[in-house]
Amino acid sequence: MPPASPDLISPRSPRVSAARRLARRNFRGKERLFLAEGPQAVREAAGHRGNDGTATLVELFATPDAAERYADIIGDARDAGARVHLAAEQVIADISTTVTPQGLVGICRFLDTPFDAVLDARPKLVAVLANVRDPGNAGTVLRCADAAGAEAVVLTDASVDLYNPKAVRASVGSLFHLPVAVGVPVERAVEGLKHTGVRILAADGAGDRDLDDELDKGTMGGPTAWVFGNEAWGLPEETRALADAVVRVPIHGRAESLNLATAAAVCLYASARAQRASGGCRSVTES
């Protein structure tokens, strides 16, 4: 039996135009809505609810082929109360921000968490993105934080928009897994986390402490927030000065440096392992 015919066939449809505008930051901020593309992101969005119980997924556009292939996701979206539109491939291509759309594009409510709520939860492992401008890096660090079992991510006010489509794609669904606070001045982020007993470690290639040495000394088992800086110039001196320690990832080979996401993964997993060993954090292998 062939897939059903699309209901939306014109990119000029008001619904399509409204969705397409969400690729622009000013419209996302005005509507407090963002785009989630592809089966993994849409599946996570369909199962997510905000702190008030409101469903995150508002609307879903799917080609007939994608609706048939991902019938379970379509069912989850409808169960969540989302409006589901069967759309022509050209319509999906018009909404999508990718070169090769996967046939599913969701519209989601903003889901960032107030920073005070992050502090109230007394997290044991946090990633702070200070002046991170590349959306792909931001999304990848968020994914690494999720994988390492971090309990929150904080994006400072100088960092990229959490809901940039490239950041959402790079998170591969992790955006929907853990609290993310946005727009927090770095000084407030550090002060607030310190006040809850979290040790602040600034990750910097020129740090005066070596990550391996810190692990060997047993200093990594307590609640920790890692501060990661800009992709090109790292952390400024005034931000490094806020930290309890500035730590470098050792380079044992001939590589000049590590990129931001790789360094973040190494640091976060080092903390996660140390915390598990001291009984301070759940296993990153737990489901």
Explain what this protein looks like in three dimensions:
This protein is an alpha/beta fold and 287 residues long. The chain has 13 helices and 11 strands. It has helices at 14-21, 25-31, 39-46, 64-69, 71-79, 89-95, 115-120, 135-147, 165-171, 186-195, 211-217, 237-240, 260-277; strands at residues 33-37, 57-62, 83-86, 104-109, 125-129, 152-156, 180-184, 199-203, 209-210, 224-228, 245-248. The strands form 2 sheets. The chain has a 7-stranded parallel sheet with strand order 7-6-5-10-8-11-9. Helix 8 (135-147) links the parallel strand 5 and strand 6. It is elongated, with a radius of gyration of 20 Å.
What is the strand tally?
11
Structural class by SSE content: alpha/beta
Report the principal-axis shape.
Answer: elongated
Query: What's the pLDDT, averaged over the residues?
Result: 91
Strands of the biggest beta sheet: in what spatial order?
7-6-5-10-8-11-9
Please trace the helix and strand order, writing H or E for each element.
Answer: HHEHEHHEHEHEHEHEHEEHEHEH
- State which percent range the strand residues make up: 15-25%
Give the distance, in angstroms, between the N- and C-terminal Cα atoms.
Answer: 38 Å
Residue share in helix: 25-40%
Tell me about the largest β-sheet. Answer: 7 strands, parallel
Uncertain parts = 280-287
Number of helices: 13
The gyration radius over C-alpha positions equals 20 Å
